[in-house]
Design brief:
Order of helices and strands: HHHEEHHEEHHHEEEHH
Largest sheet: 5 strands, antiparallel
Strand order of the largest sheet: 4-3-7-6-5
Structural class: alpha+beta
Shape: globular
Distance between the termini: 41 Å
């Protein structure tokens, strides 16, 4: 990273996945920047209120200011606000983890989740990162509404990654395309041990009926041993019903998208 802004954003993104904080030396090593520069920048971010020092060992961590800004922004997006009851209903009905992902330009970001599982053994990961499109049900559901060419453009922008994901994560362009086309044919996406080992998911896109544009994705994820074919069959109508109920909210969300960024659904 070369610019001060890029370094600051890199530090914020890195620490977003480490609530307890991280030693300054490790931050510098992970981002490949000089320790002295990392120290100066971290202290500036503390003065601005974006970083804090851990009370235990002095590690650097994000402050609640970042959370406040994110929640303020999300509260202004009608789709997010109106989707809360839907996500809760999906969680209760599926007894698994329900999530809402919204399309943010060329990315898909999970912004809401609700846990419906009552088991002590359940899938409930943090939501601190951009969705990996190539190996997730949510990614495939969104990409299925685009042409093959546009879908691959988004995959390549993010990178065709499989290391650190599940054993069934696609490793070639052909495998990714096959999954996208299957989701397109079925009207929903399903993955098993792809995003994470031992985890399966199903997802349906939220489609703006007038602009013919996807603005989000509803999904359910759980342990593979619990996400049986029978359960998937039961979950799918619930996901589709709730996605359909959010059509008007999607029209409200469209005002946040620049016309040049609106992607048309393939016919």
């Amino acid at each position: 990273m070369s610019t001060v802004l890029a370094r600051a954003l890199g530090m914020m993104e890195l620490l977003s996945g480490v609530p307890g904080g991280m030693p300054l030396g490790e931050i510098a090593d992970r981002l490949k920047i000089p320790a002295s520069a990392a120290h100066r920048l971290a202290n500036e971010l503390i003065e601005l209120g974006y970083f804090r020092r851990s009370s235990d060992v002095g590690d650097y961590a994000l402050s609640m200011k970042m959370t406040s800004l994110a929640l303020t922004y999300l509260s202004e997006i009608d789709l997010v606000e109106q989707a809360k009851p839907s996500v809760d209903r999906i969680a209760r009905g599926s007894k698994a983890l329900a999530r809402l992902g919204i399309v943010d330009d060329k990315r898909l970001i999970w912004v809401l989740k609700s846990q419906g599982s009552t088991s002590n053994i359940r899938y409930d990961p943090p939501m601190h990162h951009e969705v990996q499109l190539s190996c997730s049900a949510s990614g495939h559901a969104w990409l299925s509404l685009l042409s093959d060419e546009k879908a691959l453009e988004l995959v390549f922008r993010q990178g065709l990654k499989f290391e650190g994901f599940g054993p069934n994560a696609p490793r070639t362009v052909e495998e990714v395309l096959e999954l996208i086309r299957t989701a397109r044919d079925n009207g929903y996406a399903r993955v098993t041990d792809s995003y994470e080992d031992g985890v399966s998911a199903i997802a349906v896109p939220i489609v703006n009926p007038r602009l013919r544009q996807a603005t989000g994705v509803l999904s359910v994820a759980g342990l593979t041993m619990q996400m049986t074919d029978e359960k998937i069959h039961d979950i799918l109508p619930l996901l589709q019903e709730e996605a359909g109920s959010l059509s008007e909210a999607r029209l409200d969300y469209a005002k946040y998208l620049l016309p040049t960024n609106r992607e048309r659904i393939v016919s």
